[in-house]
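Bench notes, afternoon.
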Amino acid sequence: MKKISLIAFVSILVFSLSGMAQQMNYKEFTNQEYWEVVSGRAAKIVESMDLKDAAKEKQVQDLIAAQYYRLNGIHDTTDEKIEELKKSDLEKAKKEKEIEKLNAKREKDLAKLHKSYLKDLSKELTAEQIDEVKNGMTYSVLVHTWDGYLDMLPDLTKDQKTYIWNALVEAREKAMDAGSSKAKHAWFGKYKGRINNYLSKEGYDLNKASEEWHERLREKGIEL
């Protein structure tokens, strides 16, 4: 095996780091104060994953922080344009049409960003680890809600469980791109409404099931 010279090694290292910098494009993140906020948020997610690789932890943290930063940019820019439209002298019908266009563009931009983000994460993490990132970005609402349904309705069929799980996974994908904690929870609330409607059609009395579940929890000394 040939020995590599120190100069060659340094050159390769510099080239590699340069490639990473170009991939992340740190010049994009001009608001240093907000970058530090999202970096701290991302760090908490990465710390919970126990990756045991300092270089990978830093790379994943930066990817998550960049995603938060870019999401914020899309939402803020769109919301500002919508507010300007609302204050304009345009006719109501025209305002609504323009706002509809802006929201459609928002969704298109979010979908594109979502896809590229998951692609970048897949270069660093396994599918299971990516799920950990998704849960971290959405306060693990999927996990808590899933566990709640299973505990409240222990006799769910396989098909019913599949429906619930798929709905919550879809909700998580939407919630990941939301611009605030309230908006993230709203996505889960929307999909929980769909799940509850589905279960009602399947013959479940959810009000009764919820009351009985809470009673079982109280008996165990657990309050929701």
